[in-house]
Automatic annotation (TrEMBL):
Top-level EC class: transferase
Residues annotated as transmembrane: none
Region of interest called Disordered, as start-end residue ranges on this chain: 1-25
Domain Response regulatory: 33-150
Protein name: histidine kinase
Any GO MF annotation of the entry: phosphorelay sensor kinase activity
Modified residues (4-aspartylphosphate): 82
Catalytic activity: ATP + protein L-histidine = ADP + protein N-phospho-L-histidine
Start and end residues of each Histidine kinase domain: 189-404
EC number(s) per entry: 2.7.13.3
Taxonomic lineage of the native organism: Bacteria, Pseudomonadati, Myxococcota, Myxococcia, Myxococcales
Keyword Signal: no
Length: 425
C-alpha cells in the first residue's frame, strides 16, 4: 500500500480536550527511552506529540533495520512499531528483536490499520507483541498504555540500582572484615614477635647497667640501648591499646579500690625521674579521693595527659595536676600547662588517633596518647575535655564516676558539669 494512502495514527478525538496523564518519571531516575518505529514521518511526529507529556526520551526511526540498530546501542522501556513498512516489516522486526537475548523480553506494541481478523492479530502476538493498537489510535489510551511500561522499566532500574548498591555494601563489608582480621594478626605480631625480643634487649641492658665496674663508653652505650628500648616499648604498648580499642569497642578496664591522689603522686614521681629538668606540681583539695577504678589504666591516661602537657609547654614553666570532688558521685582531675593555645583547626580532631600537634621535634610520638587517654576515660564512664586560651593556657578536664563503671547515671553527671563552651571529646 503506498505511503500516501496510509491511515493516520491520530484519531478524531481532539488532543486539546483530552486529559493528559501526569509525568510518570520515578524521582531520582533517568528518563526511560521509548522507541518509535514508522516509515511515515507525519506518523512519528504525531506519536511524539502524544507521548511528550510522559517525560520519556523518545527515539524515532523509519525502518526495521534502524530499529534493530537502535536496540543495540541503548535500552528501552518499550517499542511502538508500525506493522506496514517497506523492506523489513514490523512483524519480522519483532521476531528478530525476540531472537536476541538482550531484548527478548522487551515490550512491543504494534500499531496497524490492517484487518481485525483474529488470525492476523494472533500472528502478531506470536511474533512478540504485548499489545495491538488499531488506527486511528486514541491519544489517551496510547499514553496510558505506554506510561505503564515506562513506569515498570523505571521501577526495574531502581531495583537494579539497589542491587548494585547492596553488592557494593557487601564488598565494603568484606573488605572491612579482612582489615579487621589483619588488625588481629598485627596484634599477635606486636604482642609476641616484637615484645619477646624487646624484653630480652631491655633485660640485658638492665643487667649490664647494674654492674659496678664498666667503662664509661660502654655504660653510655647501654643507657642509649635502654632508652631506645623503653621508647619502643611505649610505642608497642600504644599500638596494642589502639588496636584493642578499635577491635573490641573500647579499652578493657578491671576496676579496683584505690586513691586518686596517691595515683597522681605516683605518676608525677615517675615523670620527674624521667624528666628531672621539668617541674610537675600536685594540688589536692582533699587529703584523699578514694574510688573504684582501673588504677593501671587510669595511671596510663594521666601519664599521657601529663606527657602532652610537658611536650607543649616551655621548659621553664611548671605543669600542674589538680584533683577535686564533685558531690558524692564524681571526681575531677585537671592537667594544666602554660604553653601556646591549641590551634583552632586541631581542636575538632584532638582526640582522634594518629593526630599530632605542631611545633614538636618528638618524632617518636604516634599521635595516640590523647586518643588512648580519651578511650580509657570513656571506658570508666567519664568525660575528657579541654580549654585552651592565650590568657589561661591549656587545661584538660577529666571527670570520673567515683564508684561505678559505664553507668549512664554517672556519665550524665560528668557531662552535666562540663561547660557548654568547652570542647568535649
Amino acid at each position: 500500500m503506498p505511503p500516501g494512502s496510509r491511515t493516520p495514527v491520530l484519531s478524531a478525538v481532539s488532543d486539546e480536550h483530552s486529559s493528559r496523564p501526569t509525568n510518570v518519571m520515578v524521582p531520582g531516575s533517568r528518563p526511560a527511552r521509548v522507541l518509535l518505529v514508522d516509515d511515515v514521518p507525519s506518523n512519528l511526529f504525531a506519536l511524539e506529540a502524544i507521548l511528550e507529556p510522559l517525560g520519556a526520551h523518545l527515539v524515532s526511526v523509519r525502518s526495521g533495520d534502524e530499529a534493530l540498530k537502535a536496540l543495540l546501542l541503548d535500552e528501552y522501556a518499550c517499542v511502538l512499531m508500525d506493522v506496514q513498512m517497506p523492506g523489513l516489516d514490523g512483524l519480522e522486526t519483532a521476531r528478530l528483536v525476540r531472537a536476541r537475548e538482550r531484548t527478548k523480553h522487551l515490550p512491543i506494541l504494534f500499531i496497524t490499520a490492517l484487518s481485525r481478523e483474529t488470525a492476523y492479530i494472533t500472528r502478531g502476538y506470536e511474533y512478540g507483541a504485548v499489545d495491538y493498537l488499531l488506527k486511528p489510535v486514541d491519544p489517551d489510551i496510547l499514553r496510558a498504555k505506554v506510561s505503564v511500561f515506562v513506569e515498570l522499566y523505571q521501577r526495574g532500574e531502581q531495583l537494579r540500582q539497589q542491587a548494585l548498591e547492596l553488592a557494593e555494601r557487601r564488598r565494603v563489608e568484606e573488605e572491612l572484615q579482612r582489615a579487621t582480621e589483619l588488625e588481629q594478626q598485627i596484634v599477635g605480631i606486636v604482642g609476641h614477635d616484637i615484645r619477646s625480643p624487646l624484653a630480652a634487649i631491655l633485660t640485658t641492658a638492665s643487667l649490664q647497667l647494674a654492674r659496678d665496674t664498666m667503662p664509661d663508653g660502654q655504660r653510655k652505650a647501654f643507657e642509649r640501648v635502654a632508652r631506645a628500648g623503653e621508647r619502643i616499648q611505649r610505642i608497642v604498648d600504644q599500638l596494642l591499646d589502639f588496636t584493642r580499642a578499635r577491635l573490641g569497642g573500647g579499652i578493657p578496664v578491671v576496676p579496683g579500690a584505690g586513691d586518686l591522689n596517691e595515683l597522681c603522686c605516683k605518676v608525677t614521681d615517675e615523670l620527674r625521674a624521667a624528666q628531672p629538668d621539668r617541674t610537675v606540681l600536685c594540688e589536692f583539695t582533699r587529703e584523699s579521693l578514694p574510688g573504684t577504678w582501673d588504677l593501671d589504666r587510669l595511671a596510663q591516661a594521666l601519664a599521657n595527659l601529663l606527657d602532652n602537657a610537658l611536650k607543649y609547654s616551655p621548659t621553664d614553666t611548671p605543669v600542674r595536676i589538680r584533683t577535686s570532688e564533685q558531690g558524692a558521685d564524681t571526681v575531677h582531675v585537671e592537667v594544666h600547662n602554660s604553653g601556646a593555645p591549641i590551634p583552632t583547626h586541631l581542636r575538632d580532631t584532638l582526640f582522634q588517633p594518629f593526630r599530632r600537634g605542631v611545633d614538636t621535634d618528638r618524632r617518636e610520638s604516634l599521635g595516640l596518647g590523647l586518643y588512648i587517654a580519651h578511650s580509657i576515660v570513656q571506658a570508666h564512664g567519664g568525660t575528657l575535655r579541654v580549654e585552651s586560651t592565650h590568657e589561661s593556657g591549656t587545661t584538660f578536664f577529666l571527670c570520673l564516676p567515683r564508684q561505678a563503671l559505664g553507668s549512664g547515671r554517672h556519665l550524665s553527671a560528668c557531662a552535666k558539669v562540663a561547660p557548654s563552651e568547652s570542647l568535649i571529646a
